[in-house]
Design a protein that fits this description.
It is a single chain. The strands form three sheets. Strands 1, 2, 3, 4, 5 and 6 form a six-stranded antiparallel beta sheet that branches. A four-stranded antiparallel beta sheet has the order 8-9-7-12, with helices on both faces. The N terminus is likely disordered. It is of the alpha+beta class and about 400 residues long. The relative contact order is 0.08. Helices cover about 55% and strands about 20% of the residues. α1 runs antiparallel to α5, α8 runs antiparallel to α9 and α9 runs antiparallel to α10. It folds into three domains: about 110 residues; about 120 residues, PAS domain (Beta-Lactamase); about 150 residues, Reverse transcriptase/Diguanylate cyclase domain (Alpha-Beta Plaits, 2-Layer Sandwich), CATH 3.30.70.
Length: about 400
């Protein structure tokens, strides 16, 4: 017998399945929407937090670097400039020329945009005293020229004895800059101030580009937004932070941290770096130069030596300042005989020519002891053995140079 109700039952079952499927589709759509919305929210929050922290880190780095430079400037800046230099005519005095030259050297080494000093004159006006730029450079400030209006409020705080650090990179009329103002004291009395400005254009535009592209990636990738924005930001910001972390401020060479990291990296795969050569350098008489001629001459000694090392060996390997007066070069896959000739001829010859740079009472202080060692897998257990050998040879050369100097 045919069941007349079976057709209706089948229809009801199909309807029930369709209702359940529709319910599951709606539920699944809600879950997907929640996941997408949450991903966008988390991505935006993570990116905003990272952007804020990165900008703050950049400002903190610039602040710390400014403090190091300004502390150094105070050790040699002639305080007399604030009382004697008042007008453009004072630019021809030896006092102005000497101090302007010193400021210019620091501005170039530290990669500053502007570097100047200011004071309050007898009429109460804020005026420039020294400008580290070339006298014919655009924007050069003459002695006695009024301090620009944008700096006056900060300058007033400085003349009250306060240090004024920028809280952010400013987009000025001549591009993004980071500005710091610092008081100059004489016998516990503020006699003027220093203005230091970094060219922060690359950082500023990079930061803005990061916001735009990271937001675009977040909208297009949705669920992967937080992960990808983090990777993108680190990829963009890492080179700048790495350079700041691994560069010696005074000389511009790689610092001790970079040296230790590179040693560890090379040690892990020495066979791919052979022939490997290490060269050690030590500046003779640096302490004596600092004690007798002043730290500005000592710094000139260090910077000049660093430039010589970079000039002769920078194309062959990595150059490092690894201590107060010690430098090192690591080369990989370079001919040791060629490096030896450069060390004994070109480098030694030019070092001899630099004797007159650091001189007192007819005595030249500029002398660099050096030592060289080549990695040999049959002799050396690791890279540290090569380092020790180069160091021993350098100190043997140093003793030889001192004995020769005494004999003369």
């Amino acid at each position: 017998m045919v069941n007349l109700c079976s057709g209706k039952k089948i229809d009801l079952d199909k309807k029930s399945v369709l209702i359940k499927q529709r319910f599951l589709d709606i539920f699944e759509a809600k879950i997907i929407f929640i996941i997408i919305f949450t991903s966008l929210f988390i991505g935006a929050a993570v990116f905003s937090l990272m952007s804020f922290q990165s900008r703050q880190n950049l400002v903190d780095l610039l602040k710390d670097r400014s403090e190091v430079i300004l502390n150094y400037v105070e050790t040699f800046l002639d305080k007399e400039t604030f009382s004697v230099i008042n007008a453009p005519g004072d630019m021809e005095t030896p006092l102005y020329k000497k101090n302007q030259y010193e400021l210019e050297q620091i501005r170039q080494v530290a990669d500053l945009k502007y570097f100047s000093t200011f004071k309050r004159d007898d009429q109460g006006a804020l005026i420039y005293v020294l400008d580290s730029q070339d006298n014919n450079a655009p924007g050069f400030c003459l002695p006695g020229q009024p301090l620009e209006e944008a700096l006056r409020d900060k300058a007033e705080l400085v003349l009250e004895g306060k240090k004024v650090f920028g809280n952010a990179i400013q987009n000025s009329g001549y591009g993004p800059v980071y500005i710091t103002l610092w008081p100059v004291f004489e016998e516990n009395r503020v006699i003027g101030g220093i203005v230091l400005e970094y060219d922060a254009g690359s950082i500023y535009y990079l930061d803005n580009s990061t916001f735009f592209f990271s937001a675009l990636i977040g909208l297009s990738l949705l669920f992967l937004f937080s992960v990808l924005s983090s990777i993108l930001f680190k990829a963009i910001s890492r080179p700048f932070h790495k350079k700041m972390a691994y560069t010696d401020l005074l000389t511009g060479l790689n610092n001790r941290t970079a040296f230790e990291l590179d040693k560890k990296r090379i040690q892990g795969n020495l066979k791919n770096y052979t022939p490997l050569v290490m060269l050690m350098f030590d500046l003779n008489n640096l302490k004596e130069v600092n004690d007798t001629l002043g730290h500005s001459k000592g710094d000139l000694y260090l910077v000049t030596a660093a430039h010589l090392i970079q000039k002769h060996f920078g194309l062959y390997g990595e150059c490092y300042r690894i201590g107060g007066d010690e430098f090192c070069v690591i080369t990989a896959r370079q001919d040791p005989e060629v490096l030896g000739r450069i060390l004994e001829q070109g480098f030694a010859g030019e070092t001899e020519e630099k004797q007159g740079i650091i001189k007192s009472n007819g005595i030249g202080y500029f002398a660099i002891a050096s030592g060289m060692a080549v990695y040999d897998k049959n002799i050396h257990r690791d890279l540290y053995d090569v380092f020790i050998l180069a160091d021993e040879r350098m100190y043997a050369k140093k003793r030889q140079m001192k004995m020769k100097a005494k004999g003369e």
